[in-house]
Design goal:
The protein has 151 residues and is α/β, with parallel strands linked by helices. It contains five helices and five strands.
């Protein structure tokens, strides 16, 4: 079963961008950890990052045609602005978990609203890179249950 992890704008700078807010792990380290955990559980995981809204929309649309079963997404700054990404996720109707490294509710008021949370199966925020691992654990457990396999 296939899992897609999508990272939005500026997440390619993790490790050097405001480490006091976003942590010291790089995006490559996060992706490698997720891929390893997914493979150990018998799943295929692909990660995709872009700073461009249209590329993210294209990737979400392609996921549905490629047999993807679940998405983990950190829309980053697009969380608070992108109806286009929200609509792409609604259109493909794939289940997804929304992840944020920082707690968006403890930050600037404009970051408190997410266009994605209403559609998401779950939202994890404020737990740093560990939030991705927790999301992946949920995805694996959910997909195994759907397939009738023990968690």
């Amino acid at each position: 079963m296939q899992i897609l992890v999508i990272h939005g704008p500026n997440l390619n700078l993790l490790g050097s961008r405001e480490p006091e807010v976003y942590g010291a792990q790089t995006l490559a380290q996060i992706d490698a950890d997720l891929a390893k955990k997914a493979a150990e559980a018998g799943f295929t995981l692909e990660s995709f990052q872009s700073n461009h809204e249209g590329a993210l929309v294209d990737r979400i649309q392609a996921a549905a045609h490629e047999g993807c079963h679940f998405i983990i997404i950190n829309p980053a700054a697009y969380t608070h602005t992108s109806v286009a990404l929200r609509d792409a996720l609604a259109a493909v109707a794939l289940p997804f978990v929304e992840v944020h490294l920082s707690n968006i509710h403890k930050r600037e008021p404009f970051r408190h609203h997410s266009y994605f949370s209403q559609l998401a199966e779950g939202v994890i925020c404020g737990l740093g890179a560990r939030g991705y691992a927790l999301a992946l654990g949920h995805v694996i457990e959910t997909l195994r249950a759907q397939a009738g396999k023990p968690a």
